[in-house]
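> @MW can you paste both from yesterday?
MW: sure, first one:
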Amino acid sequence: MKSQQIRQTFLDFYKSKQHEVVASAPMVIKNDPTLMFVNAGMNPFKEYFLGISESKHSRIADSQKCLRVSGKHNDLEEVGVDTYHHTMFEMLGNWSFGDYFKKEAIAWAWELLTEVYKIDKDCLYVTIFEGDASENLERDTEAYDYWKEFIAEDRILNGNKKDNFWEMGDQGPCVHVLKYT
């Protein structure tokens, strides 16, 4: 499957789940002194996550162009070291602003991967946030319990804060990464 088809299938799938499909924001951020470039798919929605303003849509899907050269949690030094850190890339995102949360997000991710993209379930692993004792953050047992409905427990891996959690300020959304082997 070509990248254009993967992207369009993703957007069509979330449109069928009542998401408003929006265009990629420009990579150069205007009116935000904290970032020079969009370095993550969530950047264009920062004002919604931080409660500065409200989105016109409670559900959004997009394919965001990103440039990995800036940000509080910069991992530019990882570019070229592994197979998944790149300098320029697109992030496919489905976003809920107070409309749904982990249960639906997990169920739809599984449906998209296994029923729409037809990825063999035996080739998939998922991660959950393992917690961080130094910051008194607990393991995400809620996501773990939802994932158990779809995948064997030995395919649910713990992801640490460095690899599985991006922050926008003192707190921020946790990203659950699906891994394909």
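MW: second:
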Amino acid sequence: MGQKTNPVGLRLGIVRGWSSVWFARGGRYAEYIREDARLRKYLLKNKKLEKAQISRVEIERKPQEVQVTIWTARAGLVIGARGGTIDLLTKELKHFTGKSVKMKVEEIRQPERDASLVADSIARQIESRVSVRRAMKRAISDAIRAGAEGVKVSCAGRLGGAEMKRRNTYHEGRVPLHTLRADVDFARA
């Protein structure tokens, strides 16, 4: 049995904050968790936001308000022409929660350094029949060029349509998984 732990969960409260910030009283905890999961799934799988490269969604709850922050590489696509898309999303999320919703869009300045965007990029390239090795090597070189101290990328499955599954792992620089103060970003796609 392995002892692998999620690098993000291990660093919560040390270098990382929580993606949902709220306090539940009176048995509402499970309801809030389900609602958060539904909101995240809706925003990440939304057809209108497919090309927006959404990295993460942060949810903060106040007594009568839900504040949703969307971190994206293409803020213009989330906001839309004259704020049309964001207004529509706000209405739909208000319908989901039954409370007033406040939307905030934050732009990711260097998408090459964001783990979830890099993972999505590699996955998309593999789906469009690009060589697995080339996609991984390119992602690593782009991240290092963008200023990352180190990168570790792993792909698993029937790579290249092979009969047997295998795992390819490449890394460059340093990725100190045991150092809790190290800002390690992690994503899976």
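> thanks! The domain at 111-173 is CATH 3.30.1140.32 (Ribosomal protein S3 C-terminal domain).
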